[in-house]
């Protein structure tokens, strides 16, 4: 059996719904050998995930998904194999989390102008003390009956042009790559087909990413269709990037992004885990202490 990789996932440390340890146990049940925990703008779940990964015999890759402002767009850069004690990275993440904190207050103020009261407190309940994202506002708005599901609530309230959208002052592309590289990690342009960019603009983004030292494209993503995977594989090949694969799993209530069901890496791509810098290539496989796993 070949080694199974899932290099993009979320826990309760950001907007996922499983605790880091639960996520790791699920990954193990789904026969994933190497899992990257890549919460939005923080590494708070890594320690717990690592402990559980050691216990069940799975390789945990320390990661984070950084929010980046690129023109008027927000794009996501996943950092893999991060040294989570690196001060440059920690300072960068702290800045993003401070912006997130301000943004959550601003989202709440804007919703209040539309007579939706108590949104910040409501979102806080769902975030359970972790950093607040739009998903937590979404859950609050659904609970209050403003929309019937995630898709609808984002469309009505939380995307650009809607009352609960606050334009961002996230990291620049250069900053995000700088922090990831300072922490010894690989920078991955996440779900490149999701940004609704024209072909020309996407090439421009890839060019800038490459000039700044970015070397990996997330070709296989839970949010890419088969056609998109093929198109991204072509781009990956023509730019000479390596390719990553990740489910972007957020929890069991998000049925269209499941775990352990990723399509195979296209043959014309070089997987990032075959790159010389991939730390796990040199590691021995951990033997599980217990073979009885439950969530
Ligand atoms: P944030 O980083 O707080 O702005 O939130 C971004 C997150 O919101 C993404 O990672 C997804 O988890 C979620 N999200 C964004 N757009 C949508 C959408 N249209 N439907 C459902 N979830 C979405
Ligand atoms: Mn998310
Ligand atoms: Mn993302
Ligand atoms: Mn993600």
Describe the structure.
There is one protein chain. With 295 residues, this protein is α/β, with parallel strands linked by helices. The chain is built from 9 helices and 8 strands. The chain has helices at 20-29, 46-56, 87-113, 119-127, 134-143, 150-158, 173-182, 199-211, 226-239, and strands at residues 5-6, 34-37, 59-62, 64-70, 73-80, 186-189, 216-221, 242-246. The chain has a 5-stranded mixed beta sheet with strand order 4-5-6-7-8. Strands 1-2-3 form a 3-stranded parallel beta sheet, with helices on one face. α3 (87-113) packs antiparallel against α7. The model has no long low-confidence stretch (mean pLDDT 94). The site of one manganese (II) ion (MN) has 4 residues, from loops.
Helix-strand blueprint:
Blueprint: E1 5-6, H1 20-29, E2 34-37, H2 46-56, E3 59-62, E4 64-70, E5 73-80, H3 87-113, H4 119-127, H5 134-143, H6 150-158, H7 173-182, E6 186-189, H8 199-211, E7 216-221, H9 226-239, E8 242-246
Parallel strand pairs: 1-2, 2-3, 6-7, 7-8
Antiparallel strand pairs: 4-5, 5-6
Helix pairs in contact: 1-2, 3-7, 4-5, 5-6
Bound molecules: adenosine monophosphate and manganese (II) ion (3 copies).
Residues 8, 10, 65, 248 line the site of one manganese (II) ion.
Brief characterization of the structure:
The protein contains 9 helices and 8 strands. The chain is α/β, with parallel strands linked by helices and 295 residues long.
């Amino acid at each position: 059996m070949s080694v199974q990789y899932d290099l993009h996932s979320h826990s309760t440390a950001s907007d996922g719904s499983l605790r880091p340890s639960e996520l790791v146990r699920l990954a193990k049940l789904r026969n994933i050998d190497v899992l990257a925990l890549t919460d939005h703008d923080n590494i708070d779940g890594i320690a717990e995930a690592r402990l559980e990964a050691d216990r069940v015999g799975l390789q945990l890759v320390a990661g984070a998904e950084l929010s980046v402002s690129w023109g008027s767009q927000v794009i996501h850069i996943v950092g893999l194999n991060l040294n989570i004690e690196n001060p440059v990275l920690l300072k960068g993440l702290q800045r993003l989390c401070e912006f997130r904190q301000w943004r959550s207050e601003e989202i709440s103020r804007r919703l209040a102008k539309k007579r939706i009261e108590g949104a910040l407190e409501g979102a806080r309940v769902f975030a359970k003390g972790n950093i607040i994202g739009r998903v937590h506002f979404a859950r609050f708005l659904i609970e209050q009956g403003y929309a019937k599901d995630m898709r609808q609530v984002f469309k009505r309230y939380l995307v650009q042009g809607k009352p609960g959208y606050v334009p961002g002052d996230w990291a620049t592309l250069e900053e995000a790559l700088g922090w990831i590289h300072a922490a010894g990690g690989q920078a991955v342009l996440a779900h490149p087909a999701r940004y609704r960019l024209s072909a020309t603009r996407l090439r421009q983004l890839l060019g800038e990413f490459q000039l700044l030292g970015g070397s990996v494209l997330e070709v296989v993503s839970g949010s890419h269709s088969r056609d998109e995977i093929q198109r991204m594989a072509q781009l990956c090949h023509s730019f000479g990037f390596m390719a990553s694969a990740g489910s972007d799993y957020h929890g069991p209530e998000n049925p269209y992004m499941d775990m352990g069901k990723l399509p195979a890496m296209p043959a014309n791509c070089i997987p990032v885990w075959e790159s010389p810098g991939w730390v796990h290539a040199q590691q021995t496989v951990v033997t599980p202490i217990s073979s009885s796993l439950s969530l």
